[in-house]
Specification:
It is a single chain. α2 links the parallel β3 and β4. This protein starts with about 30 loop residues before the first strand and ends with a helix. The chain has a six-stranded mixed β-sheet. Helices cover about 35% and strands about 15% of the residues. With about 475 residues, it is α/β, with parallel strands linked by helices. It is globular and about 95 Å long.
Amino acid sequence: MDPTPDPARAAPHEMDVAGSLLDLVGNTPMVRLGRVGAGLECDLIAKVEQFNPGGSVKDRPAIAMIDAAERDGLLEPGGTIVEPTSGNTGVGLALVAAQRGYRCIFVMSDKMSAEKVALLRAYGAEVVVCPTAVPPEHPDSYYSVADRLTRETPNSFRPDQYSNPHNPAEHERSTGPEIWRQTAGRITHFVAGVGTGGTLTGVARHLKAMNPGVQVIAADPEGSVFSGGTGRPYLVEGVGEDFWPTTYDPSLVDRTVMVTDAESFEAARRVTREEGLLVGGSCGTAVHAALVVGRELGPEHVVVVLLPDSGRGYLSKIYNDDWMMDFGFLHSAGPSAGDVLAAKAGDLPDLVLVTPDESARDAWALMRDLGVSQVVVSVSKEPPLAAKEVSGTLDELSLMDLAFRDAAVLERPVSEVMRPAMPMIGIGQPVPILVDQLGAAPAVLVLDGGHPVGVISRSDVLSFLAARSDGGRR
């Protein structure tokens, strides 16, 4: 009798092994947000894109754009990929570059987390960091710098995710059909953040082709142009814009929900702590918008929210309590900077702004008329002011010193006579931290949810402490 066959020596079946990392992109899972959506009557389901090899939804268009460039002869062997990115598209492109032997240069704004910069460099990419608080046409903007580097770098190709039609086309080909199949066609609402608009546009094209009644909701940061802003700075990364990309088709969007930084970060932290799903800030933007929409819907509705990435790239920011406290998103127990600000004399404004192009004389007249000793210099006076828009400080002591030496200085623009911006402190920081800050500067700028809301001087703290002492003796 033949011996029992040894399974280890049996004829091998075809191995289930991907040819490369790029073959693992797509077919990401969906999960019900049962705890975060517990108060909703509708079904809230997340499309979890952090399961792509590069950790984000951007892997999909990255491969599609490079495939098309190779087919069209726009990217030759040994060439260089140049792209402005918030980080995630860069990682996707870096994966392709590593597999196919390309060099990468990525241009990022200075609001991006250190983890994102380090991650791109880990893939061997060169990273150029540019200022956030400049318009797109400024030579130092990350769009302009990317254009210049593309021109100056031999054998280079810029995918330009903001105008490349293969960006939305890939989501129409893959992401949209996956969502339709995974929900068995029951989806009634699709929610996603808008950056390039490629994800929202591509998915919307497919879903509306399958069912024109599917509602598409764009989640957009406060300040971004898509929800009526002018592109002013905000802290959430990878979503929103200061211009209208051609990859975004707003005609497919049924509703746009504006979301503040505070709402984005609170939602992201909530998803992480209640669902065990570590997500990024732009995921929080989308989840908050989905909750806004979901509260209006009944049990027959299925809301799908796309979560573009993981929170691993934001550990030093939105998952760092110190950072959150510094920008006024969290509050300590006990007396805080906000209490000191609230106790200031009611006849004095909390925050007085001048722009860099105003004359020093006009700024001084404003200080005199309002009875304040310093003003904040900002590129904008329109609320809500962003911390990145603050460029300096003008105070009467330094202005007096300059005018004493040369009275003509009063006719010069504020930008030429201002001092560096005063230190910033979160509104929830405890009073001892505030006192420490004022040991090195005569005044500090208070941030609430990332927005400057007032100035606190040493005199303000003394008045606050004196009032508390008087109250304790009564």
